[in-house]
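Reopening this ticket.

The earlier resolution said the output was attached, but the attachment link was broken on my side. Pasting everything inline this time so it's all in one place.
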Amino acid sequence: MENKPLVLIVEDEADGRDMLQDMLDMWDINSECVSDAESAIDHLKANQYDAAIIDLALPQMDGSQLLQEIRMQLKLVDLPCIAVTAFDNNVVKHQSLKAGFSAYIPKPINDTLLYNALKQFL
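Inline output:
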């Protein structure tokens, strides 16, 4: 039997975490949730994830800074990281993809877009 993929959700809003976790549950994808970048780093050091969904507007360290930590400090260069944000515009999208995010999903989350992005990486 194949193991279910495990995705780390990094979202500071409880409702957002719950919604994303419900979507992944529906798609038979395991997930763990954290509310800030420091917790995400701790989880990434302790566990092996198949992907991460990262809100760009996190407290203290934002999603782009977290991505740099993931790539440079943790050396997880192949971990697919999906940016999600409520501050959607072409500049933010371009900057996110240029920074190294594997995909970009605006809020409110379109479940088809997210599913297709995850399916591509898992």
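Reporter confirms the inline version is readable. The helical segments are 14-26, 37-46, 63-73, 90-99, 111-121. The chain has one domain: 6-121.
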